[in-house]
Amino acid sequence: MTVEFEEYQICFEKFLAWVNIKVYEIATREIDSEKLYYNKKGYTGSGDWVETIDEAEIFMSGYIKWDGCCEFKFLDVGHFCRYDHLQSFADLLVFIHTEAGRMMDTPLEGEFKEWTP
User: Fold this and answer.
1) What is the pLDDT of residues 32-51, one digit of tens each?
2) How many CA atoms, within 13 angstroms, populate the side-chain half-sphere of residue 1?
3) Which residues pair with 72 in a beta bridge?
4) How far apart are CA 46 and CA 109, in angstroms?
5) E-assigned strand segments in 33-106
6) Global confidence as pTM
7) First to last CA, the chain
8) Domain edges within the chain
9) Beta-bridge partner residues of 67
């Protein structure tokens, strides 16, 4: 399942006891259409964009487990110019965690859960 959240495209892959994620940063959008552009794998600067996530640089990957434990790997440098950019990134992490819990039918707010297959 792929979901757009603010300036990110998130790919979720559900398994029995965890959800894998890959996050792609949306570099820009066409004003008069729905077309999105992403930073190209190995990009060197602004304007080095591609139209598909298959060709795009992964901004972040990781997983969320059934008990709420999660791990994220940043494959590129996260750069935040202002406080609102940092807040947007924090909102992204909360969104990913919450959506993964919904996908596993496990609300992940609060305490960690006991495994019950």
Assistant:
1) 878 898 888 888 777 788 89
2) 12
3) 62
4) 38
5) 36-39, 49-50, 60-65, 70-74
6) 0.81
7) 23
8) 2-103
9) none
